[in-house]
């Protein structure tokens, strides 16, 4: 899930003479001091979360160690603040990076690019560019009508919702850099290859006719150059908006994961989604994931619990990518600009990529 925070930049202040100049000069120093103190506090809390969760679970709440309830509650108390701390820090940093990548600048960077290079660039830009399902149609129209090739556009549309800071933070916080890196690499590969294949199929005729008939001759609005204080404010606003919207999904997802962690027998999940479950487990996971409406914040804690109960990494990755990358609401929204054959090709190409990832990682790990 990506939230379009480009609209929430701090407004530029004008006037004010010498007082404004002094305030702008002082702001970075004051912010740097606050940031240093905040990072020290963040690290102190993060480092002691395990001890804190155990103390709250077994001393304050007086639950018995080794019980289903105790295990589930400890999991919940430990994971919620850990993920929220990581999410806040990374969203702030990515928010500052995003202040350099407005949608207009992204379109200019991708317009008239050769498809192969364009696919790689589009997939990479999708990670740091604000995007959500509701913005799929205007972004698609803006890209296609300004000369961005169809396949390059799809590389962006696949990468942007599937690989975002929320997903990567949650994966790092719950699994470590290894799994987060695997997800990043395979997600980029799917976006690049799927976009390239769609471009090679020459499916432009299956874009709705009215898209190409739109009047896009109006000159683009000039972009404002933001100062560093404004970019820092941009990052703070991103934290308020993004974390403010996804925290409930984080808590609910971890709560479901805690229930699985504490109560679901390990043999049960290993039988359905484990390595020994058979070839059918990966496509079944994808089929289950496609109609589900969730985002990274809601699905990844559940994925962690499934892995802890014996589910295979490849099967779980395929399930997660299907939920996030083949969102049913996004397909419904894209129907406004795409004909059914192009939507079917999009789903088919991405699904094949996800299945290959699932089988590959089940074989390797």
Overview of the structural elements:
- With 365 residues, this protein is mainly α.
- It has 17 helices and no strands.
- It has helices at residues 17-47, 49-60, 68-98, 103-110, 115-128, 136-145, 150-162, 165-175, 177-200, 209-212, 228-263, 266-273, 281-289, 296-308, 313-325, 328-334, 340-364.
- Residues 1-26 and 215-221 have low confidence and may be disordered.
What is the structure about, briefly put?
74% of the residues lie in helices and 0% in strands. The chain is mainly α.
The description of the largest β-sheet is: none
Q: First CA to last CA: what distance?
A: 28 Å
Level of helix content? over 70%
Radius of gyration: 22 Å
What count of helical segments does DSSP give?
Answer: 17
Indicate the low-confidence ranges by residue numbers: 1-26, 215-221
Helix/strand order, N-terminal first = HHHHHHHHHHHHHHHHH
Number of domains: 1
Mean pLDDT: 76
- Structural shape: flat
Strand-residue proportion: under 5%
Q: Care to count the β-strands?
A: 0
- Give me the secondary-structure category: mainly alpha
């Amino acid at each position: 899930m990506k939230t379009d925070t480009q609209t929430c930049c701090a407004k530029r202040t004008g006037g004010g003479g010498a007082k404004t100049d002094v305030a702008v000069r002082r702001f970075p120093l004051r912010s740097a001091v606050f940031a240093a103190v905040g990072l020290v506090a963040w690290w102190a809390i993060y480092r002691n979360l395990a001890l804190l969760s155990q103390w709250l679970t077994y001393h304050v709440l007086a639950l018995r160690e080794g019980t289903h309830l105790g295990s589930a509650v400890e999991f919940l108390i430990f994971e919620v603040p850990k993920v929220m701390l990581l999410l806040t820090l990374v969203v702030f940093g990515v928010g500052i990076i995003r202040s350099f990548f407005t949608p207009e600048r992204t379109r200019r960077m991708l317009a008239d690019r050769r498809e192969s290079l364009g696919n790689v660039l589009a997939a990479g830009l999708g990670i740091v560019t604000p995007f959500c399902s509701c913005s799929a149609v205007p972004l698609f129209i803006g890209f296609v009508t300004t000369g961005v090739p169809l396949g390059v556009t799809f590389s962006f549309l696949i990468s942007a919702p599937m690989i975002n800071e929320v997903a990567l933070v949650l994966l790092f916080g719950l699994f470590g850099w290894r799994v987060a890196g695997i997800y990043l690499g395979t997600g980029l590969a799917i976006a690049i290859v799927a976009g390239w294949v769609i471009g090679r199929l020459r499916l432009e005729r299956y874009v709705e006719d009215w898209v190409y008939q739109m009047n896009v001759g109006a000159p683009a609005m000039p972009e404002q150059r933001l100062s560093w204080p404004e970019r820092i404010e941009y990052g703070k606003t991103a934290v308020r908006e993004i974390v403010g919207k996804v925290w409930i999904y984080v808590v609910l997802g971890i709560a479901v994961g805690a229930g699985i962690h504490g109560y679901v027998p390990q043999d049960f999940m290993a039988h359905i989604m484990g390595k020994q479950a058979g070839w059918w487990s990966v496509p079944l996971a994808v089929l289950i994931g496609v109609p589900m409406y969730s985002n990274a914040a809601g699905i990844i804690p559940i994925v962690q619990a499934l892995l802890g109960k014996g589910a295979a990494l490849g099967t779980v990755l395929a399930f997660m990518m299907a939920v996030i990358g083949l969102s049913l609401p996004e397909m419904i929204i894209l129907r406004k600009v795409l004909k059914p054959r192009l939507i079917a090709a999009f789903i088919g190409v991405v699904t094949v990529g996800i299945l290959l990832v699932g089988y590959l990682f089940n074989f390797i790990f």
